[in-house]
Amino acid sequence: MKIGEEAMPSEGIGEQSTSARTVLIVVSDLRAHPETTVGEIAARTGLPQSAVSAAIGRLRSVGAVIAETDPRDRRRTIIREAPEVSERVTRVRDTPIDAAVAAALRTNDPQRVRETVVALEELADRLIPHLRK
Q1: Which sequence spans correspond to the domains of the chain?
Q2: Distance separating alpha carbons of residues 81 and 59, to the nearest angstrom
Q3: Alpha-carbon distance 19 to 110, whole Å?
Q4: Considering the entire predicted model, what is its pTM?
Q5: Is 1-6+17-94 CATH 3.40.50.1100?
Protein backbone atom coordinates (compact mmCIF):
# COMPACT_ATOMS: atom_id res chain seq x y z
CA MET A 1 0.00 0.00 0.00
CA LYS A 2 2.81 2.39 0.91
CA ILE A 3 4.61 1.79 -2.41
CA GLY A 4 1.35 2.39 -4.30
CA GLU A 5 0.77 5.56 -2.34
CA GLU A 6 4.29 6.80 -3.09
CA ALA A 7 3.86 6.05 -6.82
CA MET A 8 0.47 7.79 -7.08
CA PRO A 9 0.68 10.80 -9.41
CA SER A 10 -0.45 13.96 -7.62
CA GLU A 11 0.20 16.64 -10.22
CA GLY A 12 -2.82 18.81 -10.90
CA ILE A 13 -5.10 17.45 -8.18
CA GLY A 14 -4.55 20.29 -5.73
CA GLU A 15 -4.86 20.15 -1.96
CA GLN A 16 -7.00 17.26 -0.76
CA SER A 17 -8.85 16.77 2.53
CA THR A 18 -8.08 13.05 2.62
CA SER A 19 -4.92 11.04 2.02
CA ALA A 20 -4.08 8.93 -0.99
CA ARG A 21 -3.93 5.95 1.36
CA THR A 22 -7.54 6.50 2.43
CA VAL A 23 -8.59 6.71 -1.22
CA LEU A 24 -6.71 3.49 -2.01
CA ILE A 25 -8.41 1.70 0.90
CA VAL A 26 -11.83 2.92 -0.23
CA VAL A 27 -11.16 1.92 -3.86
CA SER A 28 -10.01 -1.54 -2.77
CA ASP A 29 -13.15 -2.02 -0.72
CA LEU A 30 -15.38 -0.71 -3.49
CA ARG A 31 -13.83 -3.11 -6.01
CA ALA A 32 -14.47 -6.01 -3.64
CA HIS A 33 -18.05 -4.82 -2.97
CA PRO A 34 -19.29 -3.32 -6.27
CA GLU A 35 -22.54 -1.80 -5.00
CA THR A 36 -22.23 -0.36 -1.53
CA THR A 37 -22.76 2.67 0.67
CA VAL A 38 -20.45 5.02 2.52
CA GLY A 39 -21.58 3.53 5.84
CA GLU A 40 -20.90 -0.02 4.67
CA ILE A 41 -17.41 0.94 3.45
CA ALA A 42 -16.71 2.62 6.79
CA ALA A 43 -17.88 -0.45 8.71
CA ARG A 44 -15.75 -2.85 6.65
CA THR A 45 -12.59 -0.72 6.58
CA GLY A 46 -12.70 0.80 10.05
CA LEU A 47 -12.27 4.27 8.53
CA PRO A 48 -14.35 7.12 9.92
CA GLN A 49 -17.46 7.76 7.83
CA SER A 50 -16.27 11.33 7.21
CA ALA A 51 -13.00 10.03 5.71
CA VAL A 52 -14.88 7.60 3.47
CA SER A 53 -17.22 10.39 2.35
CA ALA A 54 -14.24 12.62 1.55
CA ALA A 55 -12.57 9.81 -0.42
CA ILE A 56 -15.79 9.13 -2.35
CA GLY A 57 -16.06 12.85 -3.09
CA ARG A 58 -12.53 12.84 -4.40
CA LEU A 59 -13.22 9.79 -6.55
CA ARG A 60 -16.46 11.31 -7.87
CA SER A 61 -14.67 14.52 -8.83
CA VAL A 62 -12.37 12.60 -11.19
CA GLY A 63 -15.13 10.41 -12.59
CA ALA A 64 -13.93 7.18 -10.98
CA VAL A 65 -17.17 6.41 -9.12
CA ILE A 66 -20.82 7.28 -9.35
CA ALA A 67 -23.30 7.73 -6.54
CA GLU A 68 -26.98 7.11 -7.15
CA THR A 69 -30.05 7.12 -4.96
CA ASP A 70 -31.13 3.58 -4.14
CA PRO A 71 -34.47 3.12 -5.97
CA ARG A 72 -35.68 0.74 -3.22
CA ASP A 73 -34.80 3.13 -0.38
CA ARG A 74 -34.45 6.76 -1.45
CA ARG A 75 -32.62 7.58 1.82
CA ARG A 76 -29.63 5.45 0.75
CA THR A 77 -26.98 6.37 -1.79
CA ILE A 78 -25.36 3.49 -3.67
CA ILE A 79 -21.72 3.90 -4.65
CA ARG A 80 -20.27 1.99 -7.61
CA GLU A 81 -17.34 2.22 -9.99
CA ALA A 82 -18.03 4.38 -13.02
CA PRO A 83 -18.75 2.29 -16.12
CA GLU A 84 -16.20 4.27 -18.12
CA VAL A 85 -12.58 4.49 -17.00
CA SER A 86 -11.83 8.14 -16.30
CA GLU A 87 -8.74 9.98 -17.51
CA ARG A 88 -7.46 10.18 -13.92
CA VAL A 89 -7.92 6.44 -13.33
CA THR A 90 -6.12 5.70 -16.59
CA ARG A 91 -3.26 7.98 -15.54
CA VAL A 92 -2.99 6.33 -12.12
CA ARG A 93 -3.09 2.81 -13.61
CA ASP A 94 -0.47 3.73 -16.22
CA THR A 95 1.96 5.28 -13.73
CA PRO A 96 5.01 3.09 -13.26
CA ILE A 97 5.84 2.11 -9.69
CA ASP A 98 9.53 1.59 -10.43
CA ALA A 99 10.77 4.73 -8.64
CA ALA A 100 8.72 3.95 -5.52
CA VAL A 101 9.94 0.34 -5.54
CA ALA A 102 13.56 1.52 -5.97
CA ALA A 103 13.12 3.86 -3.00
CA ALA A 104 11.62 1.06 -0.88
CA LEU A 105 14.49 -1.27 -1.83
CA ARG A 106 17.05 1.53 -1.44
CA THR A 107 18.63 0.64 -4.77
CA ASN A 108 19.13 2.11 -8.21
CA ASP A 109 19.72 -1.32 -9.77
CA PRO A 110 17.15 -1.46 -12.60
CA GLN A 111 17.31 -5.28 -12.79
CA ARG A 112 16.52 -5.67 -9.08
CA VAL A 113 13.69 -3.14 -9.36
CA ARG A 114 12.24 -4.88 -12.44
CA GLU A 115 12.39 -8.31 -10.77
CA THR A 116 10.61 -6.91 -7.71
CA VAL A 117 7.89 -5.24 -9.81
CA VAL A 118 7.30 -8.51 -11.68
CA ALA A 119 7.12 -10.40 -8.37
CA LEU A 120 4.61 -7.86 -6.96
CA GLU A 121 2.45 -8.13 -10.08
CA GLU A 122 2.48 -11.93 -9.87
CA LEU A 123 1.60 -11.81 -6.18
CA ALA A 124 -1.31 -9.44 -6.90
CA ASP A 125 -2.56 -11.75 -9.65
CA ARG A 126 -2.50 -14.70 -7.25
CA LEU A 127 -4.03 -12.96 -4.26
CA ILE A 128 -6.63 -10.75 -5.91
CA PRO A 129 -7.14 -11.88 -9.52
CA HIS A 130 -10.75 -10.71 -9.57
CA LEU A 131 -9.71 -7.15 -8.69
CA ARG A 132 -7.07 -6.63 -11.36
CA LYS A 133 -8.21 -5.06 -14.63
Answers
A1: 1-6+17-94, 96-132
A2: 9
A3: 29
A4: 0.70
A5: no
